[in-house]
Design brief:
The chain has about 375 residues and is an alpha+beta fold. The chain has helices spanning about 1-15, 65-75, 75-95, 95-110, 120-130, 145-150, 155-160, 255-265, 265-275, 330-340, 340-355, 360-370, and strands at about 35, 40-45, 45-50, 55-60, 170-175, 185-190, 200-210, 215-220, 225-230, 235-240, 285-290, 295-300, 305-310, 315.
């Protein structure tokens, strides 16, 4: 038995780090950023700057590895800051060093084949970013292995322990539910990993060599998408759903959302991309499309996919499924009964019922509302908000 445990421990250790892709042309690594002031860095047409609202704005163009390497060079301080904030919060939640080491190898085992489910373009881009990561976090894994695994942090967090670190709410209105019939989308990204992690967000504008130019709201080191819009007027936001414990790697949700944003120009194309990617957690993708002038929710589990359409000119999404195929599943019913998802959904219904014609300003007011159902005071930081 001891020999068996030793062999298993050695196996976990050897698979906990993922080999990076083989990049032939590394000439971009010789290029250095220029700095015009304390808040503006540039490499060719690519730049990173901080605006008057405290948000960072980043523009990236070119091929995958080149794009990632430039990202890393422009934002290396933000990448280090974000990783420090993330690991500090994890250590606060799990103070035992031995247990953290154990979890490292368990996650490594679960994600041992992660790169098999990430398309080469995103492997190359993430590898380019990882070259700017700090070696002081090598106790977790190599730079590339860490950065790739961070793209699955959302998935692992709500799948392994159903911690509900992610409890987002989103909605869209169009035609007779919006002023001037405009398609309007709003979402709260409730992903909490400490106050420090919530700082220094980046509004990234991508002009990739392949696909559609797009923008997303992100953070240092992250190439996935949680909220974004492309040049064709298609938007993507993600909402976590209750999942069973995964048995192995699959495509991280954020990279499925990224692929949709970069390569889909309408709802049909978005559904096709979601169908061909295997995920190991359950997720809802609220997809709004200017060319279709409507929004739908793609609901996806590791085994099934269905599309929810509201049948009217507004659609709401919290953290439970609504489609015919998935709404009655046992895990989803448990989520409805035991989580704050249904409460938030019903509160959102109330706020929209009080809205004659939705506008961007009204959307922001709804998202910032901090009262419970029937305008009751349920306290700040309440999951039902």
């Amino acid at each position: 038995m001891l020999l068996g445990l030793l062999i298993f421990a050695i196996y976990l250790y050897t698979i906990s780090d993922i080999e990076p892709p083989d990049i032939k042309d590394r000439s971009i690594l010789q290029v250095e950023r220029t700095q015009s002031d304390s808040m503006h860095f540039q490499i060719g047409a690519n730049f990173l700057q901080q605006n008057s609202f405290g948000l960072y704005e980043m523009y990236l163009e070119g091929a995958d590895f080149e794009r990632g390497a430039i990202y890393g060079k422009l934002a290396k301080e933000l990448i280090r800051y974000q990783e420090q904030a993330f690991t500090d919060e994890i250590q606060r939640m799990i103070p035992s060093k031995n247990y953290l080491k154990f979890l490292k190898y368990i996650v490594g085992f679960m994600n041992r084949n992660l790169s098999d489910y990430v398309i080469p373009e995103y492997q190359n881009e993430i590898y380019g970013i990882s070259l700017a990561a700090s070696d002081e976090f090598n106790w977790i894994g190599t730079n590339y292995s860490r950065q790739l695994n961070y793209h699955a942090a959302h998935d692992i967090g709500h799948a392994l322990a159903n911690l509900m670190l992610v409890g987002c709410t989103s909605f869209a209105t169009w035609n007779n539910r919006s002023k001037d019939s405009l398609l309007t989308v709003g979402r709260n990204f409730d992903f909490y990993v400490g106050d420090d992690f919530a700082k220094n967000k980046i509004v990234a504008f991508y002009n990739p060599e392949k696909g559609i130019p797009f923008m997303s709201v992100t953070w240092g080191g992250f190439a996935g998408v949680v909220s974004g819009m492309n040049a064709k007027g298609l938007t993507v936001t993600i909402n976590a759903n209750k999942s069973s414990i995964p048995s192995g790697a699959a495509t991280p949700v954020s990279l499925v959302a990224r692929e949709i944003l970069q390569y889909a120009s309408n709802i049909v194309e978005a559904i096709a991309i979601a169908k061909k990617r295997k995920m190991f957690v359950s997720e809802s993708f609220l997809i709004a499309s200017a060319s279709d002038n409507r929004a739908v929710v793609i609901e996806k589990t590791p085994d099934d996919l269905d599309v929810y359409e509201s049948g009217n000119n507004e659609i709401l999404c919290a953290n439970h499924y609504q489609s015919k195929l998935l709404a009655k599943q046992e895990l989803n019913q448990t989520q409805i009964k035991q989580s704050a998802s249904l409460y938030r959904y019903q509160r959102l219904q109330q706020l929209l019922q009080q809205t004659t014609l939705n506008t961007p300003q009204r959307t922001a007011e709804i998202l910032r509302d901090y009262r419970g159902q029937n305008n009751t005071d349920i306290g700040l930081t309440n999951e039902k908000l």
